[in-house]
Every structure is written in C-alpha cells, then in structure tokens.
C-alpha cells in the first residue's frame, strides 16, 4: 500500500524541530550558569519542553501521512510515546550541564539519545494499530537509527565547541536548523522504511486521534511550550546579569573598596565602603562642590584620565598612591584608580579607592623585622647551640657554626638535606618522628627532645625548638629551629633511674611487700612478701577483700576506711599503721601506704601501695618508751644519783646494736661501745687513748686516715656519710656504713669526733648472692626453653606415631582380604593342576575354576587398589605433616583424611567425629599446620573432655567469612572450668599432670595458628556442656615459608 504526505504539515513539523533545537541550545547554555541547587529543576523543565518539541515533530509528521484507508492513533500509546523523547532530553541536558565531558561520554549519551528518539518514533507508529502490522525495511530502519545518533552527536559537539566563547546568533540559528533537519530527516527516513500491506486496516480508525486539525493543535501547543521555555531563559539571563552587578558592588564594598560615581566633578553615588573610608555620609559626599577635595592636589592630577570619553571605559594609567582627606581632618594612604566612560550623552568617572594604611604599616614593620633578623643572625652565628633555617618543606637553607660543632656536618654537607634524614637513626623514637612530620606538614611549631646521630656515628640527645615563619600574606615560607645538646642531662637521668632500681632492690631485701586492690573485682593482689606478712597462701596472689579485712584489728578498721575514702575522692595517697590479729591471738604491727588510681575519665578503679612489717620496731619503740619512762621517773626521784644515771646511759650505749665511738682531737678513742667491741674483738680498755688508725684501720689506709684527721679543721669539710672497712682482732675485714659528727670548741677547733654506724657486710654479701642467684636463674630459664623445644618435638613424634598406627590399621583389612583371596586362588590352582595331571579334568570343573578365579582376581585387585588409595592418602597426610610448603587443597577432603589417620585412637572410644565443613571450599594453606592443629584438638578432646566409656560427638565445621576462613571445633564433653580458661594456651599447663598430659598440646595449636597461619584462636563461651574452639586465619597467606 502506497502513501503520500500533506505538504503543509511536513513543513510545520520541520519548523517545530528547528524551534525545539534552538530552545534546547538556549537551555543548555543557561545550564552552565545556574546553581547546583536549581540545576535539577532546569534539567527537568528543559527535558519536558525539549521532549514535547521532538514528540510534536514526529506526531505532526505522522499526521501528514495520507493513506487510502482511514487512519487514526491510539491515544494511550501516543501519550506513552512521549516518554522516550523526554528521557532522551534528560540524558542530553545532563551531559550538557557538565563543565567537561569526554568523547566516550558524549558518544554514549548520543547513542542513548538516538535510541530514545527512535523508540519514541516507532512507539508512535505502533499507535496506528494496523492489521496486519506494519513491516519495516531493515536497511532504512538502521539508517533512521544512525541519523538519530548522528543528530545527537552533532548537537553535543556543537554545544561543547561553542560553549567556551561567545556564540553569534546566526551560529545558533544555523546549529538549530541543522539539528532540526536531522531530527525531521530521522522521522521521514523511518516513515520511508514503513511498508503497509495492501489489505491492511487501522483498528482504531473510528476511536483514535487523527486529522489535520489535531496535528495543527498539537504543533501549536508544542510551539507555545517551547516559546515559554525560550522566554524563561531570556528572563533568567537578564535577572542574572542584574544580580551579578549588584553582587559585584556588594563584593567591592565587603572587600573594603570604596567606590565614587562622579558626574561633572560632583559625587552622585558613594558605596558604604567609601563612607567608612572617608568618614563622610553619602549625602555629605554628594554635597561637596568637587570630588577633588577628597584627595591631595598631586593625587587629583595623577587620577585624571587623558583622552576623550567614549562608549567604553577609559582607565587612568594604573593604580596611584594618593592621600585621602578624611572628615575628621586625618589623612590616610590609599591606592586609587579612576575610569572615565560615557553614560548615554553624559560623561562620568568611576573612582575606586583601597585603604593601604595597614599595608604601609606592615611594610614598615617588615623592614624593622628584617633589621631584627639581621641582629638575630649575628647572635645565631656566635651561639654554641645549633641554629637551622629550612624552607617550608623542611629542607636546610642555612645552619650556624654551632650546628657543625654538635652534629659534625658542615653547612655545605647539610644544604639541601632534611634534618631528619641527615641526623636521625635506629634509636630515634618513631612516635616523636611522626609528631615532627605532622607538625611540619601543618606548618606549626613545636618543642621536643629527640635522639640524633653525630657524623661519626655517636648518639646524642638534643632539645629542639621549631618556630614557623610566615610572610605578609600569612603564607608559610620557612622554619627556624634551635637545637641544644642535652646528652649530659640524659645520662644523669639514666644514672638516677639506675639508682632508683637499686633502691627498689634494697627495699625487696628489707622485706617490703607490695599490694594492689581491684575495686571492680573487690579483691587484693599481694606480692610474695605481702602474703608472708598476712600469713596467707595464694598461687596467683589474688586474695578476696574479706580475707584481708578479717585480719585487721576492729579498732583500726574505722580509721583505715576513712583514710581510704578520702584518697578515693581526691585520687590521693594515705599512710597509716595497723594491727593484724591472727587466729592464734598473735598481733603484727604493719605500716600501710597506698594511693588511689583512676581511669581516663578520672573514676577510681584501683589502689596500690606497700606494706611493711614493723612489729619488731614497735616492740623496740615500746621497750624504749618504757625505758624512757623509767629514766624520767629516776631523774625525778633520784636526781642526786647522777653517777647511777651515767652508768645506766653507758649500759644503753653498750647494749645497742649500733656501732658508736668517739675520737678526741688527736684521733684517739675516748669511747668505744659494746657493739664495737663485739665487732672488732677489742675491749675498750685496750684501745683507750690509742689512735684509730693504729688498730682498726687496714694497713694500706692508715696513713691516709691519719692525714685526713690531722687536716680536719672545719665541720663543713667533714664527710658525713661513708662506707669504710674496719679490721678486727682476728684479721677479718668488715664493711661499715658510718655517719660522722664533729664537736668543736668556741674557737671552732676540733674537740671530738663522734661516729655511729652499722655493719653492712652481710648485706653486701646478700647483694652478691642475689646477683649470682639471678645468673643461675637465667641459666635455668635457658634450660627450660631447651626442654620446651624437646617436648614440642616429642609431641610431633607422637603425632607421627599416631599416623603410622592409622596406616597399619587401615591397610591391614584390604591386605588381609587380598592375601585370603590369593590363598584361595592358589588352592584352586593346585586342585586344577592335580585334575589335569590325573586326566580327570572336566569341562564343568574348568568353568567353575574360571568363575572362582575371576571372582578372586576381582577381590584381589579391588582390595589392592583400596590399599593403594589408603597409602596415597596417608602418604599425603604424612608429607603434609612434616612439610613446610604451602599448597592448594580441598579442606573437606583433607579433614576426612586426618580423621581416617586417627581412627585407631577413635575406635577405642565411643566418640563420633563429624566433618561438617563446606565440601567445595578449596584454599591455599599450610597443610602440615592444619593437620597438627586438628589432630592436637581431637586428641586433647578425647583425653580431657570425656570420661572413659562415655559416648560423645565432635563436630568440625569450616566456612569462608569475608577474606578469612573460620574453623570451629566443638565437642559436647565436660567443658573447661572458668577459672582456667585464661591459662589453657599457656605452655606446660595441664589438668592431667602425672596422667600423660604434657601441657603443650593447646600451646602448640596456639603457636601454629598465630605464627604459621597468621590467625587467631579463642575459646567460645556458651551455656551448656561442651567446648568450642574458633580459629580464624586469612585465606591469602601473608607469608609462605619455602
């Protein structure tokens, strides 16, 4: 069936297409200027108007078709055909709204747009509902699609090529005409591709849309929509320009740029910034006879532009520095520029002023700072501290002579280097290094202490102070660093720490116990000495609070609780003396010291402190108090008996354990108490009026001691505390710690020297014995480590023995069947041979022999194959167990092989093992580690989880969780007691000591999981019986040992 076109509608459809293309170009250009918030609305509205235009082109074009039969269009399908056109317009405007789009993006957008236009056309053709349906020429249909895609590509190309500059109107019209003709060409090419059957009829001819009037109406409606969209773009452009100029004036005012609009030398407009700058209001500025009164005469001459006014602004020769006369009589420095232009028939000038007073002041300050910097540079060159100047990236620009003295590097060697790379080394704190890099990256200064290395390799400490330097604009330009050598101070601090460590050791020897009280858990943690003082026993040191409180004397509990409550409030310390009462009635006096500690938020969480047994001290104090009371009473009652009082005092001195002696100015003994007699073996009568260096001083120091005593003229020069050796009568040397005092006469001359001391020989020997004990302990620890390694090897050998037992047990059955079958065949052969030799061989006997032989061979072959398969499986397990290599394996099958290898151990029990892992899970792992882990867990469960004869169930499951493998080993046995859960992975810890348990099984499992597989293992806590171990390790091994 042939068809024709109505020419007027064809022309009308082409005009609609051109108008729609022009409107689309205008919308696309406006999209480049709209805000991000309003862009979606512009795209939506523009897509609707553009889609309606394209759809109207096609609908009017289809109405222009004249067929020899009545034709109309289904209303619903016609309306639906509008959707692809709008969707294609959305794609086009979305791409055009981007600042830039690659060629690939534009191509994809062109294809999608073309497909949308083609879909719109052919869905509109389908609205005719012809019977039989319309046929299409394939070549022309493809051509129509290419025209649609090509038209879309040309539209995008023209837009991106023209958007960067101003586009003349004729160029826009030409582009719109080209796009419109392409859109119409696609439609009429698609119409040409349509082939109508000669007997075709339109099924909606009576109820559908049709006729030239509807086409004209739709076209005019589309033109109105496009015209409204086009008008909206022009309106938005005008409003945008007005807003732009308003924003420009506001921005100038906000930026402090004063603006004057001048006409005939009179001010007709002044912005708020100019009002603030001059001090005049706008009305006052307008009232001035001439604008020249605002600036000095020279400035007015400089600002006047030359040349005749024109349509375009004519500026003066650049910015000029002028003096602005303010309303209050002050003068200020300004930078000004005047522009002359014509407004209609009137000449006007625009004067723009910027206050540069602060900048001038900053320049003067900068000059002063430069002078100060020169002075500082002179000082830096002469100081012993290192002074370094770097650029903003931390590269050394200059260093003084002090830098070379401290570091050993000359300025030439340091230039262009970063101090960190040049001076830091292995012992430099990484945390301090990261802090320095972070501060430099932020452009901020800092102070810190750090370890550096001298050019010779010597390590030294420095205190560094780094300050940033900024320019006038606030930009970072350099850093200045001052480094001070603090090595001697650090060495002194290290020596002090060592002394404190020795003091702690001495406190330990003095039986000074330590304690800690955990508030949340309400229990004490006591050291061994503290346990001894309380006469309590605890392997871990953990003691309930009630057990300790029960020992405190009831009268001491109240004051103790009060002091501890005060310490809790302030997180402070307390010190008190308590009495401990034991069940047998004994009392102990202790001195308790402690302090409260808080968490990060300041909430108290624990106490810690020390406790010292002072029972003997208290007894001595009590005895001394009783003695003093007796003495006082005797003084009151018997003051006349001075000689007896002197004798009593002598008794106290002689019975004291402290060594006491008195020397006169000659160095001879005038007093020598009983403790000295017991120590030296000399009686005082033997040494009275004899010089000290003649008896108790070792021979090699006698001359030195005599010379010091003869030259001792002032108490200030006396060495108060010292440790010296005394020589006893029997030739022994005793080390004494002395405290000396000196008595002088009124003239300051030496009268007596008094010495008190204690024998510290045994303490020194104890210190030496402690050092030796520590050395012996280190050797013992090394021996224990060797023993641990041997036990681990024994565990591996035991595992290998279990594997061998599994091999022999599993292979024994098929080999036994094979041997039986072979024996039976041998007997059959012998019977056949005898029948053959005797001539009694029958056909039936031969057939029976052949049947039995084939059956026996089948049994023999099948069992030998089964044995070979078992040997291969056990061989792989054995190789995996001893191999250090990584390989791919099916985890489910490998777990089955491990279970088979342990069958001899499993058959002796009623425990069943189930493999519930994923059958298709293949991983790359260390098979030997997997075997060791699972075999140790199985044997551990059989040993500890079940009583003999008790049935049980062990379940092994494995699944992939993210990038890790999760392996669960669960049994329904006795479970693990909560008090040992934290120790089950410790070496040598076992609950079956003496019953075959070595305490290394779970420790080996933990080391294999954490070390070889790089994963974690933990005990899953749950209600009910049984134990579950969960193992997680990465599927991609971090390291593979060759």
- How big is the Rg? 53 Å
Distance between the termini: 82 Å
Query: Helix coverage percent of residues?
Result: 40-55%
- The unreliable regions are 307-317
Please describe what this structure looks like.
- About 1% of the residues have low confidence.
- The protein folds into seven domains: 236 residues, no CATH class; 98 residues, Beta-Lactamase (2-Layer Sandwich); 132 residues, 2-Layer Sandwich (Beta-Lactamase); 107 residues, PAS domain (Beta-Lactamase); 122 residues, PAS domain (Beta-Lactamase, 2-Layer Sandwich), CATH 3.30.450; 96 residues; 152 residues, 2-Layer Sandwich (Heat Shock Protein 90), CATH 3.30.565.10.
- The strands form nine sheets. Strands 7, 8, 9, 10, 11 and 12 form a six-stranded antiparallel sheet that branches.
- The protein is α+β, with helices and mostly antiparallel strands and 1042 residues long.
- Strand 18 and strand 19 form a beta hairpin.
- The chain has 31 helices and 35 strands.
Strand and helix layout:
Blueprint: E1 4-5, H1 7-31, H2 39-63, E2 65-66, H3 75-80, H4 82-96, H5 103-126, E3 130-131, E4 135-136, H6 138-162, H7 169-193, E5 194-195, E6 201-202, H8 212-254, E7 257-263, E8 266-270, H9 272-278, H10 282-287, H11 297-303, E9 314-315, E10 320-325, E11 331-343, E12 346-355, H12 357-382, E13 386-391, E14 396-399, H13 401-407, H14 411-414, H15 419-423, H16 430-442, E15 446-453, E16 459-470, E17 476-485, H17 487-509, E18 512-518, E19 523-526, H18 528-534, E20 542-544, H19 545-549, H20 554-570, E21 573-581, E22 587-598, E23 604-613, H21 615-637, H22 642-655, E24 659-664, E25 669-672, H23 674-680, H24 684-687, H25 702-710, E26 721-727, E27 733-744, E28 750-759, H26 761-838, H27 843-882, E29 887-890, H28 891-901, H29 903-907, E30 911-915, E31 922-925, H30 927-944, E32 952-961, E33 964-971, H31 1001-1012, E34 1016-1020, E35 1027-1034
Parallel strand pairs: 30-32
Antiparallel strand pairs: 1-2, 3-6, 4-5, 7-8, 7-12, 9-11, 10-11, 11-12, 13-14, 13-17, 15-16, 16-17, 18-19, 18-23, 19-20, 21-22, 22-23, 24-25, 24-28, 26-27, 27-28, 29-31, 32-33, 33-35, 34-35
Helix pairs in contact: 1-2, 1-7, 1-8, 2-4, 2-5, 2-7, 2-8, 4-5, 5-6, 6-7, 26-27, 27-30, 28-30, 30-31
């Amino acid at each position: 069936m042939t068809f024709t076109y109505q020419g007027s509608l064809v022309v009308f459809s082409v005009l609609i297409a051109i108008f729609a293309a022009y409107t689309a170009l205008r919308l696309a250009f406006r999209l480049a200027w709209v805000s991000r918030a309003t862009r979606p609305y512009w795209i939506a509205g523009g897509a609707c108007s553009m889609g309606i235009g394209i759809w109207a082109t096609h609908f009017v074009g289809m109405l222009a078709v004249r067929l020899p039969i009545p034709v109309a269009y289904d209303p619903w399908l016609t309306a639906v055909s509008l959707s692809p056109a709008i969707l294609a317009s959305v794609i086009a405007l979305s791409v055009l709204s981007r600042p830039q789009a690659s060629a690939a993006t534009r191509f994809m957008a062109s294809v999608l747009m073309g497909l949308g236009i083609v879909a719109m056309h052919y869905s509109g053709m389908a609205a005719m509902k012809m019977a039989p349906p319309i046929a299409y020429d394939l070549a022309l249909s493809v051509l129509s699609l290419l025209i649609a895609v090509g038209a879309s590509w040309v539209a995008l190309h023209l837009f991106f090529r023209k958007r960067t500059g101003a586009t003349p109107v004729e160029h826009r019209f030409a582009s719109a005409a080209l796009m419109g003709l392409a859109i119409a060409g696609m439609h009429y090419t698609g119409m040409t591709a349509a082939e109508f059957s000669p007997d075709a009829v339109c099924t909606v001819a009576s109820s559908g849309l049709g006729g030239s009037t509807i086409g004209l109406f739709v076209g005019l409606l589309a033109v109105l929509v496009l015209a409204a969209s086009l008008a909206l773009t022009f309106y938005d452009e005008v409003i945008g320009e007005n807003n732009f100029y308003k924003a420009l004036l506001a921005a100038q005012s906000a930026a402090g740029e004063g603006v004057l609009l001048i006409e005939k030398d009179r001010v007709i407009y002044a912005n708020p910034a100019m009002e603030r700058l001059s001090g005049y209001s706008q009305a006052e500025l307008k009232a001035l006879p001439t604008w020249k009164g605002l600036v000095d005469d020279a400035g007015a001459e400089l600002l006047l532009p030359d040349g005749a006014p024109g349509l375009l602004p004519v500026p003066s020769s650049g910015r000029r520095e002028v003096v602005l006369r303010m309303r209050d009589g002050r003068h200020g420095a300004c930078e000004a520029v005047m522009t002359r232009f014509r407004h209609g028939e009137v000449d006007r000038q625009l004067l723009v002023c910027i206050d540069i007073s602060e900048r001038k002041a900053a320049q003067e300050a900068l000059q002063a700072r430069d002078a100060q910097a020169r002075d500082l540079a002179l000082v830096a060159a002469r100081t012993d501290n290192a002074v370094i100047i770097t650029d903003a990236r931390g590269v050394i620009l200059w260093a003084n002579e002090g830098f070379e003295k401290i570091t050993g590097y000359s300025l030439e060697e340091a230039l262009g280097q970063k101090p960190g790379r040049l001076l830091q080394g292995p012992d430099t704190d990484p945390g301090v290094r990261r802090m320095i890099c972070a501060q430099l990256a932020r452009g901020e200064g800092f102070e810190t202490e750090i370890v550096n290395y001298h050019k010779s390799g010597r390590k030294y400490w420095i205190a560094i102070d780094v300050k940033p330097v900024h320019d006038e604009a606030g930009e970072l330009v350099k850093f200045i660093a001052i480094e001070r050598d603090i090595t001697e101070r650090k060495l002194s601090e290290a020596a002090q720490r060592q002394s404190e460590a020795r003091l702690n050791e001495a406190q330990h020897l003095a039986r000074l116990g330590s304690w800690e009280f955990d508030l949340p858990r309400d229990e004490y943690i006591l050291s061994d000495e503290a346990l001894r003082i309380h006469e309590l026993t605890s392997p871990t040191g953990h003691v309930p609070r009630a057990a300790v409180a029960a020992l405190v004397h009831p009268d001491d509990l109240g004051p103790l609780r009060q002091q501890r409550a005060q310490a809790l409030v302030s997180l402070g310390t307390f010190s008190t003396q308590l009495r401990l009462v034991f069940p047998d009635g004994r009392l102990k006096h202790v001195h308790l010291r402690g302090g409260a500690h808080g968490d990060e938020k300041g909430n108290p969480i624990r106490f810690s402190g020390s406790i010292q047994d002072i029972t003997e001290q208290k007894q001595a104090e009590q005895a001394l108090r009783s003695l003093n009371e007796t003495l006082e009473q005797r003084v009151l009652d018997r003051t006349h008996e001075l000689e007896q009082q002197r004798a009593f005092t002598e008794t106290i001195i002689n019975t004291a354990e402290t060594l006491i002696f008195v020397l006169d100015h000659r160095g001879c003994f005038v007093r020598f108490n009983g403790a000295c007699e017991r120590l030296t073996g000399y009686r005082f009568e033997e040494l009275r009026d004899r010089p000290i260096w003649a008896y108790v001083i070792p021979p090699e120091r006698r001359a030195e001691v005599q010379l010091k005593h003869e030259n001792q003229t002032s108490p200030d020069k006396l060495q108060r505390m010292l440790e010296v050796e005394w020589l006893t009568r029997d030739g022994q040397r005793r080390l004494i710690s002395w405290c000396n005092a000196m008595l002088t006469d009124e003239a300051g001359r030496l009268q007596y020297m008094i010495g008190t001391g204690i024998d510290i020989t045994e303490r020194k020997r104890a210190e030496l014995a402690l050092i030796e004990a520590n050395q012996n302990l280190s050797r013992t620890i090394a021996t224990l480590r060797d023993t641990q390694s041997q036990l681990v090897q024994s565990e591996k050998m035991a595992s290998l023995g279990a594997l061998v037992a599994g091999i022999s047990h599993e292979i024994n059955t098929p080999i036994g069947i094979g041997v039986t079958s072979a024996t039976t065949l041998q007997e059959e052969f012998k019977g056949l041979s005898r029948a053959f030799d005797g001539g009694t061989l029958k056909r039936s006997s031969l057939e029976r022999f052949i049947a039995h032989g084939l059956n026996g061979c089948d049994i023999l072959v099948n069992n030998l194959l089964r044995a070979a398969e078992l040997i291969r499986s056990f061989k792989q397990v054995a190789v995996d167990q001893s191999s250090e290599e990584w390989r791919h394996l099916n985890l489910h099958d490998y777990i089955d092989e491990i279970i088979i290898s342990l069958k001899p151990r499993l058959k002796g029990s009623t425990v069943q093992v189930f493999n519930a892992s994923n059958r298709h899970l293949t991983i790359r792992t260390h098979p030997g580690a997997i075997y060791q882990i699972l075999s140790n867990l199985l044997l551990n469960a059989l040993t500890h989880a079940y009583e003999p004869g008790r049935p049980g169930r062990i379940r092994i499951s494995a699944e992939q969780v993210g990038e890790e493998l999760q392996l669960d080993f669960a049994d329904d046995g006795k479970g693990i007691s909560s008090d040992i859960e934290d120790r089950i992975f410790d070496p040598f810890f076992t609950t079956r000591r003496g019953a075959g348990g070595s305490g290394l099984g779970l420790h080996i499992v933990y080391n294999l999981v954490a070390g070889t597989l790089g994963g974690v293992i933990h005990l899953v806590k749950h209600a009910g019986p049984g134990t579950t171990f969960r193992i997680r390790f990465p599927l991609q091994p971090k390291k593979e040992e060759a």
